[in-house]
What does this fold into?
Amino acid sequence: MFELRDLERFMAVVAHRNFGRAARSLGMTQPALSRRIAVLERELGAPLFSRAHRQIELTRIGDVLAREARAVLTQASLADRAMHDAVSGATGHLRVATRSVGRFRLIPEALRLLRASHPRVAVSVADPMTGFPLDLLRRGAIDVTLVRGPVNLGERLCSERLRIDQVVVVMSTEHRLANEAVVDVSDLAEERFVETVSLRAYGYYDVMRDPAMRAGFIPHVVQTLDSVDNLLICVAAGIGIAFMHDASLELAVPGIVFRPLRPPGPTVELRAVWRAGDRNPVIAPFVSYLVLAAQYERQPARSRKGTKK
It folds into this structure.
């Protein structure tokens, strides 16, 4: 069976109608080209060119092959371009899912940068209500997630630290301590607390409870919510207060305030996580853009105005 290179040689002769000129365009000698065309004709069992009167014309079989070869070579070129783009990351698909409130600032900025550098990459962003992001990541259902806390990722996952946040207290604007610049942890011993399920799932349950434990009390939890969004709804409604990372940069929720603690609360990391050895070429640039977004976020407002494009 003939190869693509055979079709390219054949189509060069078709284009030039002259073996000499066709050979020069291919960077080969005329005798070598003539031999390759002769081999092709033997394989097909029919002549491709009529050489009568020193004119090179396509035979009926040659005309059929020229039509089909043109389509095959065009498709092969498209396939080669598609494969090159996929390997280089110029095209592809990136699936991102997280419950972290970091999605409100870091992910949009990182995606904006990704779209600028990889405009043909398709992106899916989801709120993983059907399961915890790390579980979805391990199963291959998503490509990248953001995780907060001292999570044991194991050998199958890789991560990049994006930032470190302080644990603070979030409360209703109507709370008796809402106007305090800094809240003493000991003043919260008799308060009602709300928590999220993700505290336990992601392993920083102890980190969030650390301020209370150091002050000598166990938080009185009146409700456990399935998301930070619902937790903040309950806080705004005055159902309870909560220890959480300082999300004042990401969230502007009416009716709540974030207040630092005295003594200062522990810190908690926000990390981008992906599968070790994943061959999706879009992951690396996206993670690098998350890092850039986190760095930009830490710049003073005046400095950011000068660097934002």
